[in-house]
Q: What sequence folds into this?
């Protein structure tokens, strides 16, 4: 009886995992070309204006270990919620998204065809080692 219900439970867990991947599509990583070159270039300008005085690119090399295997949405949101330090949340959502594209590009991940979209799929892209 106990063993049976265990099986039922794992069947249910499998089912819900299957339906989640059916809804959200394939899990991506930052290696899959998830931003465009043009986003990274726009991001560089925004970054130089609003972030560059406090963080050079080495800063991200140092914190990157912490972000491994976390969704890109979490990284995006941490920046929106806390940065720029003197005025958090003051940039446009699209500017934050372009900044993330720029940081990814500088970390060595490839640009691609798909536009990084704050409102679509950011939680479905995992940060992995370059
Ligand atoms: C006035 C200085 C200043 C500016 C401007 C600034 N930051 Fe920061 N930032 C900090 C400080 C201070 C911390 C917290 C201490 C640390 O982690 O070094 C921090 C932390 C961070 C973190 C780590 C957050 C975490 O939860 O791990 C990221 C990522 C970051 N900043 C990105 C940015 C980006 C992107 C911008 C531009 C939109 C920006 N910062 C602008 C000072 C600044």
A:
């Amino acid at each position: 009886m106990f063993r049976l219900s265990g099986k039922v439970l794992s069947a249910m867990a499998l089912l819900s995992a299957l339906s989640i991947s059916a809804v959200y599509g394939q899990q991506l990583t930052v290696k899959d070309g998830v931003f465009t070159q043009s986003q990274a270039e726009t991001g560089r300008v925004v970054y130089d204006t609003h972030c560059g005085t406090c963080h050079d690119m080495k800063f991200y090399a140092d914190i990157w270990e912490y972000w491994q295997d976390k969704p890109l949405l979490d990284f995006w949101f941490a920046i929106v919620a806390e940065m720029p330090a003197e005025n958090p949340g003051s940039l446009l959502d699209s500017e934050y998204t372009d900044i993330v594209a720029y940081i990814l590009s500088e970390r060595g991940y490839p640009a691609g065809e798909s536009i990084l979209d704050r409102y679509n799929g950011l939680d479905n892209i995992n940060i992995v080692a370059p």
Q: What stands out?
A: The chain has one domain: 26-126.
